[in-house]
Amino acid sequence: MTVHDIRALLACDRPTVGTWLQLPSTDVAELMARAGYDWVAVDMEHGSFGRAGLPDIFRAIECGGAAPFARLPEAAKSWIKSALEAGAQGLIFPMIESRAQLDQAIDWAIYPGQDHWRAAGETAAEYRGVGYCRANVFGKNFETYRQERAPELFLVAQIEHIRAVDNLDAILAHPRLDAIMVGPYDLSGSMGLTAQFEHPDFRAVMDRIQAACKRRNARMGLHIVQPDPAELARQVAAGSRFIAYGIDSVFLWQGAERPDREKAL
After folding, report:
1. Which of 21, 36, 122, 187 pairs with 58 at a CA distance of 20 to 30 A?
2. What is the distance in angstroms between the CA of the first residue and the CA of the last residue of the chain?
3. What secondary structure letter does DSSP report for 199?
4. Which residues are registered as beta bridge partners of 16?
5. Cα 6–chain centre separation
């Protein structure tokens, strides 16, 4: 699966389903990619990943047939550069709360001359730094990467605070944004309702987000943290199109926990 394939799914209004990686193991990364997901997102915010290990993790994901994505620790220039140069094909920007913040993050992810949405003569204050790196095979495929692969980067804004919901129309209007992803735990926490996903106020905010996505013809997404096929089907039916399903550590817990543990205790 490539970013091009993922966009083809979305163009047909079909969902793209990936998964989440927290364990810094190339074997686990390849296993999760081979489990049938379109993309695997390396959780650089809450997982145990260092910059030096990213190239091997991304290689393992590609080897498994999925597109390597990165959820950054923050939407900062250094983290964006590190993930892209290691070979990420998609970026998930955490805690996006305003259009200005998203504008800056996307500018840092785009090479000069690839911001086709700007008016003639308009330029960004900063762009992605240009140089040899693992993503362009250390210069061997520099032009191919710059002209073909870099423009296809998949860019996602995480909506994780009630302030972001208040600014959502402006965020969704960015021409280069591919999708949003609701972070349910942080969003509910910002409302003083941590993990109370059935609370009427939280449900009302989710309805606001869905309505904004419909108005803007934007791709709604979210993370189904606890794997549940019925919930996945429900979210797809409700219109979600960019879905992270489970986490490697959660899958491990669910499969590994001793069945007769209570008796043993």
Report:
1. 187
2. 45
3. S
4. 242
5. 13
